[in-house]
Design a protein that fits this description.
Elements: E1 2-7, H1 11-24, E2 29-33, H2 44-49, E3 53-57, E4 65-69, E5 74-78, E6 104-109, E7 112-118, H3 128-150, E8 156-161, H4 174-177, H5 185-197, E9 200-201, E10 232-236, H6 238-241, E11 244-249, E12 265-269
Parallel strand pairs: 1-2, 7-8
Antiparallel strand pairs: 1-12, 2-4, 3-4, 5-6, 6-7, 8-10, 9-10, 11-12
Helix pairs in contact: 3-5
The structure holds one DNA strand of 18 nucleotides.
Length: about 270
DNA sequence: ATGACGGCAAAATGCCGA
């Protein structure tokens, strides 16, 4: 079985490229992030014609996560228990209430529990979004710990855009990111806590750095200059990790006009 | 200090992204 995660940066704009990539790389399950559409706007019919069932959550033009599978989709869960909301929009209404954004969806596909995750960006260190990001990760880690405690043999993949570069090797210039999000000690500790919980990066052993990136800014010729960031990850539970035979980052997919700013990351299971 | 690119919408400017 081959599974992948990909921040597609709008599924409606990227549909042809995504379907072509799934076909060319023989992908069974794809976790998508930043679909940037509501459920009723998601091109589910085109995925069905290609042989994939899809589950998606999108409540507006922002965020949006989905899982496409041709090996079945069972036990769908939208958002993890206790998933923190963000109240920027709610603050403008008469009755403030945090909105649980479309950033997490899970499904069981051929016995593997897959989470498609779009971790909040953080924006800047002084922005409420940064605290939201850390809180979001803290609750997710606690949940993940309980999933594993409930079944130590569970095959679980936490796949998505984590919006954290775990080490200085994972950004083209640590100096450039000094004082910005994605590389702070707090974010890195939040990320490393998943490994301490038993969820390890299953792709890194096959894509050693430095210079192994999954994201390149559209501006400043970042891709052409090989100036990127490694922020998209598949973290596997022990039972999932034991099945991994190969993995990679398809930087070829970042080339050409109409590419997402993120490359797909894939994993081959035995 | 800002913009570049690129996507979206209560669209021709603002919000968001990393």
């Amino acid at each position: 079985m081959r599974l992948a995660t990909w921040n597609v940066n709008s599924i409606r704009t990227r549909l042809d490229r995504v379907l072509a990539w799934l076909d060319q790389h023989d992908i069974d399950v794809l976790a998508m992030q930043e679909t940037k559409c509501r459920d009723d706007q998601f091109p589910a019919e085109q995925f069905a014609e290609a042989g994939y069932d899809v589950t998606h959550i999108g409540i507006n033009q922002w965020n949006g996560v989905a899982i496409a599978s041709r090996v079945g989709i069972e036990d769908v869960q939208v958002a993890f228990d206790g998933q923190p909301g963000f109240d920027r929009d709610a603050a403008e209404t008469l009755i403030p209430a945090p909105i649980v954004e479309s950033r997490a969806i899970a499904a069981t596909c051929a016995g593997v529990r897959i989470w498609s995750l779009y971790v909040p960006n953080g924006r800047s260190l002084s922005d409420p979004h940064y605290d939201y990001k850390l809180d979001w990760l803290r609750v997710l880690r606690k949940e993940a710990e309980q999933w594993l405690a409930a079944n130590p043999d569970a095959q679980i993949a936490l796949a998505g855009d984590w919006n954290i570069a775990p080490t200085d090797e994972d950004v083209w210039s640590p100096e450039f990111f000094a004082g910005k999000t994605h590389t702070t000690t707090a974010e890195r500790e939040a990320f490393d806590a998943f490994a301490a919980t038993g969820f390890t990066d299953v792709v890194r052993p096959f894509t050693p750095g430095p210079g192994a990136y999954t994201y390149w800014d559209y501006t400043q010729l970042r891709f052409q200059r090989r100036e990127g960031m490694r922020i998209d990850f598949v973290l596997g539970s022990p039972a999932f990790t034991a099945r991994v035979e190969a993995a990679g980052i398809d930087r070829e997919e970042r080339k050409g006009t109409g590419a997402s700013d993120h490359a797909p990351v894939w994993v081959q299971l035995g």
